[in-house]
Amino acid sequence: MSAAGRVTCRRSVAVFTFRRLCSSTQSQTARDTQPKRSAVRPAASTTHDWIGPPNPLSNLRPIVYRVPEDESQLETRLRRLRQETEDWNHDFWTKQNVSFSKEKEAFIISQLKSKGLTLRDDNGRRRNLNTEEMSEFYKSFLDKNRTRHSSYNREWYRRNLSITLLMAQVALNNLWKSVSDGGSSRSNRPRPQQ
Question: Which pTM value belongs to this model?
């Protein structure tokens, strides 16, 4: 098996294992409205990231970033910033999605009441509003949350820029290490005689 095949295989095993670990707590998490992560999280690996199934509230896949055995301080800063950003993003979207669902439900109920209708028809089926009626809700929700979304976007770009700059520093440090280690190992080798 090629190196690329081994990496793909390892990654799919990690995703599958994390998915299996989280599946037992997923239904309980869906009932909770607090922005919680799964209580079952695998320990960080030295070889690969753990990627779980989408969270039912935030719709984001949780990630546990790998911790290399010889991780430098700069790499530790990068990993922690990435994990912190992942958690911050999860919290924001959990709160946003829960708020959206509650407000949408309240809007549908109020619109049906204003028409003199109940939530369910005579056959027990749930009534829905048409697209035009729902577009009023979507617009009002976006207008009401405009500053929150703007703040989120600014913070998201700031965090991603910081992560990108740290990744560049890590790449340069690793390049420098490989060049300096390669140069010293070559100078210690005996030269062939001519």
Answer: 0.67
**179-189 as b/e, with b when 16 or more CB fall inside 10 Å?**
eeeeeeeeeee
Distance, in Å, from the CA atom of 116 to the CA atom of 119, rounded to the nearest integer, reads 10
**Total Cβ atoms within 10 A of residue 125:** 8
59-65: long-range contacts (C-beta < 8 A, 24 or more apart)?
A: 59/93, 59/97, 60/86, 60/89, 60/90, 60/93, 62/18, 62/22, 62/37, 62/38, 62/86, 62/90, 64/18
Residue keyed to tokens 């829905």: 128
Least confident of 26-30, 156-160, 180-184: 26-30
Q: pLDDT tens digits, residue range 96-147?
A: 999 999 999 999 999 988 988 888 888 888 888 889 989 999 999 999 999 9
Q: Which ranges of the chain does DSSP label H, i.e. alpha helix?
A: 3-31, 73-114, 131-144, 146-188
- Residues shown for the chain: 194
Which sequence spans correspond to the domains of the chain? 1-70, 72-194
